[in-house]
Write a structure and sequence with these properties.
Blueprint (H helix, E strand, L loop, with lengths): L2 H17 L3 E4 L2 E4 L3 H21 L13
Antiparallel strand pairs: 1-2
Length: 69
């Protein structure tokens, strides 16, 4: 799943949660969540996946030391 797809799903989950509904539609599919906790867990999962993808495309650290004599 691409970063853009995850961001779209995240937006759909947040919109559903803030509007008080428990069903989310994206990519022609509808998912019904039983409780707000399930919806919050799904949102958290998508947020973790987005963070993981954004971290992996980040910078490369190359530490070095300088010793003054």
């Amino acid at each position: 799943m691409t970063l853009d797809e995850l961001k779209l799903r995240h937006s759909a989950l947040l919109a559903a949660r803030y509007s008080g509904t428990r069903s989310v539609s994206y990519d022609g599919k509808t998912v019904n969540y039983g409780t707000d906790a399930e919806l919050a867990a799904a949102t958290g999962d998508v947020e973790r996946r987005i963070a993981k993808l954004e971290r992996s495309a980040g910078r490369v650290l190359r530490p070095h030391a300088v010793k003054d004599l």
